[in-house]
C-alpha cells in the first residue's frame, strides 16, 4: 500500500519524507489556501521534496478551463497529477487529458457509479472521501470496497486513493480492503508509528541493559 500525505505544508512533507515511507502528496484548494503562499511556488517546493506523485487541483468548472489549468500544472514537473472534480465537465476533461498522457485524479467521489465513470473516462486515480461519508452516518469503507470490486471485475488500471482519512483505523481498513493508496493528514501519519507498549518495552530494555553495565 502506498502512503500519501494530504497536506500542502512543506515542513510536514519534509518530515514525512525523512521517515522513508512516503510515496506521494495530495493537495486541494483548501489545503493550499491554508498555507497563505503562492500555490505554484508551494507545489514546486513539494515536487523537490517528494519522489512520487504530487497532486494539484484545478479550480475551473468548465472543461476547457480545466484542461488549460491541467496543462499549466503538468508543465511544472513530471510528478504532477492533476485533480479534477467528479462532474460531467470534469469527465470530458479527464478523457481529453488521458489522450495527452496527463495523469488525473478524480476527486470528490461519493458513489460507486461515480468511480466507474471516472475509470471509464481514463482517470489514473479516483479519490473516494471516506471521512466525509462517515461524518454523515454513511459508510465510507463500504464505498471503497465496492469500487475495488468493480475495478477488479473489469481490470481497470485506475488506482484507488482512500481520501478524507480521519484516523489510523481508516488506513488499516483501507489496507485490509487492498486499496492502492491512503492519503492522510500528517497527524494521522504520525499516529501510525505509535503504540504505548512499544515505548514501555523500549524503556524497559534500556533500563535492564543499563543494569548490566554497572
Ligand atoms: O484532499 C481530499 C480529502 O482528503 C479532504 O479531506 O478531511 O477535508 O474531508 P477532508
Helix and strand topology:
Elements: E1 2-6, H1 10-18, E2 24-26, H2 29-35, H3 39-49, E3 54-57, H4 63-76, E4 80-85, H5 88-99, E5 104-109, H6 112-121, E6 125-128, H7 130-134, H8 140-154, E7 159-162, H9 168-177, E8 181-184, H10 186-191, H11 196-213
Parallel strand pairs: 1-2, 1-8, 2-3, 3-4, 4-5, 5-6, 6-7, 7-8
Helix pairs in contact: 1-3, 4-5, 6-8, 8-9
The structure holds SN-glycerol-3-phosphate.
SN-glycerol-3-phosphate (G3P) binds at residues 6, 26, 28, 129, 131-132, 163-164, 183.
In what range is the share of β-strand residues? 15-25%
Instruction: Report how far the terminal alpha carbons are from each other.
Output: 45 Å
CATH superfamily: Aldolase class I
Q: How many domains is the backbone divided into?
A: 1
Q: What is the second-level CATH architecture?
A: Alpha-Beta Barrel
Principal-axes shape call: globular
Q: Number of DSSP strands?
A: 8
Instruction: Give the neighbour order of strands across the main sheet.
Output: 1-2-3-4-5-6-7-8
Radius of gyration: 19 Å
**Runs with pLDDT <50, length 5+?**
none
Q: Number of helical segments?
A: 11
CATH fold call:
TIM Barrel
Structural class: alpha/beta
Task: Quickly name the level 1 CATH class.
Answer: Alpha Beta
Sketch the major β-sheet: 8 strands, parallel, barrel
Order of helices and strands: EHEHHEHEHEHEHHEHEHH
Mean pLDDT: 98
Query: What proportion of the residues is helical, as a percent range?
Result: 40-55%
Associated small molecules: SN-glycerol-3-phosphate
Amino acid at each position: 500500500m502506498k502512503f500519501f500525505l494530504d497536506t500542502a505544508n512543506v515542513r510536514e512533507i519534509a518530515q514525512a519524507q525523512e521517515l522513508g515511507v512516503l510515496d506521494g502528496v495530495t493537495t486541494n484548494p483548501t489545503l493550499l489556501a491554508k498555507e497563505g503562499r503562492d500555490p505554484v511556488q508551494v507545489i514546486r517546493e513539494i515536487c523537490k521534496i517528494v519522489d512520487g506523485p504530487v497532486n494539484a487541483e484545478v479550480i475551473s468548472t468548465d472543461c476547457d478551463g480545466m484542461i488549460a489549468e491541467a496543462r499549466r500544472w503538468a508543465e511544472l514537473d513530471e510528478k504532477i497529477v492533476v485533480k479534477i472534480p467528479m462532474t460531467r465537465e470534469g469527465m470530458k476533461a479527464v478523457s481529453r487529458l488521458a489522450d495527452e498522457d496527463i495523469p488525473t485524479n478524480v476527486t470528490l467521489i461519493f458513489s460507486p457509479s461515480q468511480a466507474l465513470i471516472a475509470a471509464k473516462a481514463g482517470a489514473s486515480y479516483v479519490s473516494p472521501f471516506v471521512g466525509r461519508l462517515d461524518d454523515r452516518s454513511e459508510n465510507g469503507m463500504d464505498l471503497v470496497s465496492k469500487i475495488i470490486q468493480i475495478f477488479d471485475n473489469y481490470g481497470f488500471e485506475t488506482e484507488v486513493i482512500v481520501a478524507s482519512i480521519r484516523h489510523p483505523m481508516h488506513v488499516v481498513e483501507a489496507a485490509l480492503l487492498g486499496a492502492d493508496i491512503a492519503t492522510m493528514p500528517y497527524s494521522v501519519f504520525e499516529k501510525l508509528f505509535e503504540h504505548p507498549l512499544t515505548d514501555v518495552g523500549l524503556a524497559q530494555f534500556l533500563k535492564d541493559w543499563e543494569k548490566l553495565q554497572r
